[in-house]
Design goal:
Immunoglobulin-like; single chain; 5-stranded mixed beta sheet; mainly beta; Methylamine Dehydrogenase, Chain H; about 550 residues; elongated
């Protein structure tokens, strides 16, 4: 006597376990169609069927899969011998939650059917749509039934669609995409396959090649032992599948369009050498992204159980890392080309890359990439036509769509024939939040600065300084990096000390027409120490009112 389980499901309401399969002891004509239910502790649930077990007399019946409906009913699928060993009917049996046959389904709870004159109608996998319709993957076709067990003639051709024009096929799994209800079927002919259908039964030609991925394990032989036995949908719509390539057990991933996801494993696959014809029969996704795979290994003499877990590889592709942008730190005269460059690295040595520059003046250009083994550099030039202070942004993108970026603050562009004076001073009230060490502290700040260009060099008649006495915070500039005056706004950058020590970077902007100022000071690590407009872009218009004057012309 042989007993085998082909399907298992967990009741969501109480955690009880429903299993289905075959029991050869149940009748003298082959395997019995058997369903059992267990309590959460593993004991038989005696409230189900007869002491926890239901056996339905299906002649030479084989139950191959089961699914739970939302109302607790159990739908099973498989085939029978139809009193003739050379002819098999597809069989559906539906049970009530207590294990009794559901008399509202088919004929007394049973549907027996053959489609299209086929002599072998073996139903191997089953899924329930949100509207209660039942989708069955059989060896030669996919069929759909109404909730009462009648054939849904609105699906395909009179209720079914054939796979590969009746070429010998063994189906293994069917599932409905949660986002759009499309039907995904897996199995094998001479090779493994994954097919996607639209909800009406037509092939989804946007998937794979005309609706098919005919070689997900990417083997080269024309006929081999490849198979896809199960799959899961990730939250991003990608399809994770398990099976084997004839030599290795493995898992793989397809993108939403049915092509191999090269960001997963090696070219979309993770193969584990467990012996010839080894394969994973079932896969599951843990909440932490790790993948469990169970199946068969072959040691050369007999088969063993195999259980593997793969690390969190829901996205094994690493984004490129972009290094610091190199550009001249000196102010640049308008209509003079500057050159900017940056290195990048990528952990995946097979990746290729594209790049784009945002020059901060409204112009974006494609970067010139030089690379080898996934890493390299980007180098390009640009000419500014207007005076101003500009932030550069470089984005490097790999062939999987992952990207990294770097920014440079700032390129100062001046017009020596139009530059004049940037001068400001007296006092302003430090706003709440400006002083990082005590964001609630406010009070008067005395400050002063006066700079102008002599040729191409900014010269200070009065070095910038500020005194926030209530905070005992005193800043004095020691060097000036750039001065730009444009549209009545002056921008000054450089370095200085706080309370007579350290090296700090400063940015001062002032508006002549509004008589406003913005002062920002950062430490050598780029952390904001003081900023009258915390969180605002460095190029934002200054907003803090000055008691005194601001000249920028």
């Amino acid at each position: 006597m042989d007993n085998i389980v082909h399907g298992v499901a967990i009741q969501p309401t109480d955690g009880k376990i429903v299993v289905g399969g075959a029991d050869t002891a149940s009748n003298g004509n082959g395997a019995g169609w058997t369903v059992a239910r267990y309590n959460t502790n593993g004991s038989l649930d005696t409230s189900f069927g007869s002491n926890g077990i239901v056996t339905t007399p299906i002649y030479q019946g084989q139950l191959l899969d089961l699914v739970l409906q939302g109302d607790g009913k159990i739908v099973t699928v498989g085939y029978d011998g139809a009193t003739n060993a050379s002819i098999d009917n597809l069989i559906l049996v539906r049970y009530n939650a207590d294990g009794s046959l559901d008399g509202t389904f088919g004929s007394g709870g049973i549907v027996s059917i053959r489609f299209g004159g086929s002599s072998v109608d073996i139903g191997r996998a089953i899924a329930i749509q949100t509207d209660g319709k039942i989708v069955v993957a059989a060896d030669l076709y996919v069929a759909r039934f109404n909730p009462d067990g009648s054939v849904d003639t609105s699906f395909g051709s009179n209720g079914y669609v054939t796979n590969f024009n009746n070429v010998a096929v063994i189906a293994s799994a069917v599932a409905l995409q949660p986002t759009d209800g499309k039907i995904v079927v897996a199995g094998r002919t001479s090779k493994a396959f994954i097919i996607r259908y639209n909800p009406d039964g037509s092939l989804d030609t946007g998937f794979g090649s005309g609706g098919y991925n005919l070689n997900p394990f990417q083997t080269s032989a024309s006929a081999d032992g490849t198979s896809v036995t199960s799959f899961k949908f990730q939250s991003d719509g990608k399809i994770l599948f398990g099976g084997g390539d004839g030599t290795n057990a493995g898992v793989g991933r397809l993108t939403t369009d049915g092509s191999g996801d090269t960001s997963f494993g090696t070219n979309g696959l993770l193969l584990t050498p467990l012996g010839t014809f080894s394969q994973f029969a079932s896969i599951a996704l843990q909440t932490d992204g790790k993948i469990l795979a169970a199946g068969q290994a072959y040691n050369g003499t007999y088969g063993d159980w195999a259980l593997a877990r793969y690390a969190d590889i829901t996205n094994t592709n690493s984004a490129p890392t972009v290094g610091a942008i190199t550009v001249s730190t000196n102010p640049v005269q308008v209509n003079t080309a500057i050159t900017a460059s940056a290195p990048f690295t990528d952990l995946d040595t097979t990746d290729t890359h594209t790049a784009s520059w945002n020059w901060g003046d409204g112009n974006t250009t494609t970067g010139t990439v030089t690379e080898s083994n996934g890493s390299g550099s980007v180098s390009d030039s640009h000419t500014y036509t207007s005076a101003g202070v500009y932030m550069l942004t470089l984005i490097v993108t790999d062939n999987h769509g992952a990207s990294g970026q770097a920014t440079y603050q700032y390129v100062s562009v001046y017009n020596p024939t139009a530059q004049g004076l940037f001068s400001a001073g007296q006092k302003y009230t430090s706003p709440s939040g400006a002083y990082a060490a005590n964001t609630s502290l406010t009070g008067d700040v005395k400050f002063g600065l006066s700079y102008k260009y002599q040729g191409s060099v900014p010269v200070g008649n009065r070095q910038f300084s500020m005194d926030f006495n209530v905070a005992n915070f005193h800043f004095n500039a020691t060097t000036v990096s750039s001065l730009v005056i444009s549209n009545g706004i002056g921008t000054l950058t450089g370095t200085g000390t706080v309370n007579g020590s350290g090296t700090y970077n400063f940015l001062v902007t002032g508006s002549e027409s509004a008589s406003t100022i913005r002062i920002q000071i950062k430490d050598s690590s780029g952390n904001v120490v003081y900023d009258t407009q915390p969180g605002a872009a460095d190029t934002a218009t200054p907003t803090t009112a000055v008691t005194g004057n601001v000249l920028a012309h």
